[in-house]
Design goal:
By secondary structure, the chain is mainly α. Helices cover 73% and strands 0% of the residues.
């Protein structure tokens, strides 16, 4: 694959892929490595089929790399603090109709949901992030993770149920 095409994919999907990497790793340093490795693998593999959703393909590479790296991280787990990534640009833009109190409440809710998603097991977290954050279809997630669509639906249902349960208990 030539550089110009890869540059196009980086410009078009780079921010989404990086955000996905950050949410998976919960560390900006690990996310940087995963992000770079994702694009390196994509270049090594050659062409990306423009008709087959390139973003989904890149997310698949990142997810598979993370699964492999997680095994290595577990063995060599360091006692470094995890840096929580908070990108102000990921949140909705302020249109001026929201009061300061409403914005603070919304920001707290966003942070709470992010923290709850972070606490999910990886197999559930990955499905939630792919479905809601990356807006991948059930079939795309199934192909990416190499699991049946029914398993994707089940994991999505489990993740939503756990999040709902934790949110209710959090509010009480």
């Amino acid at each position: 694959m030539d550089r110009e095409i890869m540059q196009k994919y980086i410009e078009e999907y780079g921010k989404d892929i990086y955000s996905f990497c950050v949410y998976l790793t919960r560390s900006s340093e690990k996310a940087d490595d995963l992000y770079q490795d994702t694009f390196l693998i994509a270049m090594e593999k050659g062409s990306i089929d423009e008709n087959q959703n390139p973003k989904s393909y890149l997310i698949t590479i990142a997810a598979n790399l993370w699964k492999n790296q997680k095994k290595k991280y577990a063995v060599r787990k360091k006692k470094a603090n995890i840096i929580y990534f908070h990108d102000e640009n990921l949140e909705q833009l302020d249109d001026g109709t929201e009061s300061v109190e409403e914005k603070l409440v919304r920001d707290d809710e966003i942070l709470m949901v992010r923290n709850l998603v972070d606490k999910l097991p990886d197999k559930l977290k990955m499905v939630i992030l792919m479905f809601y954050m990356e807006e991948m279809s059930l079939n795309e997630i199934s192909d990416a993770l190499k699991i049946p669509v029914g398993t994707v639906k089940s994991r999505l249902h489990q993740a939503k149920a756990r999040l709902k349960e934790r949110m209710i208990s959090y509010e009480e």
